[in-house]
Amino acid sequence: MRAVLSVEPYTVGQLDELVSARLERQAVIGRAYLTAVIDQHVLHRLIGSAPVMAEQCAHLLSMAERPDIALHVVPEGTNVGLWGAFDIAARDTAATVRLETVEDLTSAASGLVGKATVAFERILGAALPRIASHELIVKVAEEQWKMEQWKMEQWKIQI
Known about the structure:
The two termini are 31 Å apart. The strands form two sheets. This protein has a three-stranded antiparallel beta sheet with strand order 3-4-5, with helices on one face. The protein is built from six helices and five strands. Helix content is 53%, strand content 19%. The protein is an alpha+beta fold. It has two domains: 1-31; 33-158, no CATH class. The longest helix is centred in the C-terminal third of the chain and has 29 residues, at 130-158.
């Protein structure tokens, strides 16, 4: 989180607050069933370093093994539109959507929740099943990030 957010001109205090807010949002994991859909491109985009990316892939895999989490990957080359990042929290008949734009926007407006729900269903429909998603994350972690980490270590040895 810090690596992603640190590219913006935040003060140390602002950055700490943003990281804390994201960690608080993650606290819901374990209290509710979670279906997450990520784009394959995020698995290949270097954020931080190769070891950080390998660690993040491992974290995704460990979370995806939990029975209360369904993780799906939209494969490269699949066009599902350009909705951007969003979350939908639903309980009984109430729902809230959080849109991640230039600034996070949270709303319970039925029209916005309805549009986000339709977008989510379309994206999920284009995503790989859970097992295939898991296999893809393992492949990227091993072929890209662990290999990149090994290359960096070899380069350091040669110097």
